[in-house]
Amino acid sequence: MATTADLKKGAVLKFNNEPCLILESEHRTPGNLRAFYQVKMRNLRTGKLSETRFRSGETLEFLRVEKRDFQYLYKDGDSFVFMDKANYDQVSVEPKSVGDYAKFLKEGSDAFLTFNDTEILSVEMPAHANLRVVQTEPGVKGDSVNNIMKPATLETGAEIQVPIFVNEGDLLRIDTSTGAYIERVKG
């Protein structure tokens, strides 16, 4: 067993029988009151964010997790099939573990899978993905000064808002955590 002194960003804690990734941990000592840790964490099964206070010195149960490099291969029914880059083993992942990243996955995409023994806890993608626009309204020449946005459909089927100067066939860099347009990419 560990204590609250071991709370660090990136550690995985077993909280209410659920694996939770610690995003932030701050030790606070308010005046004459007892010290505590204010912890922001994400449930790895549901994706929900929560904030909790732990008394200083409280015992906690941490989980041993392993994060490995995988490549997305294809979708098989509802499941997503990934291949381990180290040993070429294939694993099927439930859609709830993939979460919102599913709309930015294309064949050959890199991903990181987090395991607790043999159970897959979460799937993460790199911070940015380069995806091609397959459908959008044509851009108007000379209208790149305004911050006007329009909908565009990407090659993975995701629909995002892009600047008015983006055309079909353009390769875009997308923030995978928010789904926001970052920039056009040459290629």
Secondary structure: elements and pairs:
Blueprint: E1 2-3, E2 12-15, E3 18-28, E4 36-43, E5 49-55, E6 59-62, E7 66-76, E8 79-84, E9 90-93, H1 95-98, E10 110-116, E11 119-124, E12 128-136, E13 149-154, E14 159-163, E15 171-175, E16 180-185
Antiparallel strand pairs: 1-6, 2-3, 2-6, 3-4, 4-5, 7-8, 7-10, 8-9, 10-11, 12-13, 12-15, 13-14, 15-16
Structure characterization notes:
With 187 residues, the chain is an all-beta fold. Helix content is 2%, strand content 54%. It has a 6-stranded antiparallel sheet, with no helix packed on it. A 5-stranded antiparallel sheet has the order 9-8-7-10-11. Strands 14-13-12-15-16 form a 5-stranded antiparallel sheet, with no helix packed on it.
Cα-based radius of gyration, to the nearest Å? 21 Å
Distance between the termini: 51 Å
Tally of helical runs: 1
Oligomer: single chain
The count of DSSP E runs of length 2 or more, i.e. the number of strands, is 16
- At CATH level 2, the architecture of the largest domain is Roll
Q: Quote the average pLDDT.
A: 87
CATH topology of the largest domain: SH3 type barrels
Report the order of strands and helices. Answer: EEEEEEEEEHEEEEEEE
Largest sheet: 6 strands, antiparallel
Quick structural gist:
This protein is mainly beta and 187 residues long.
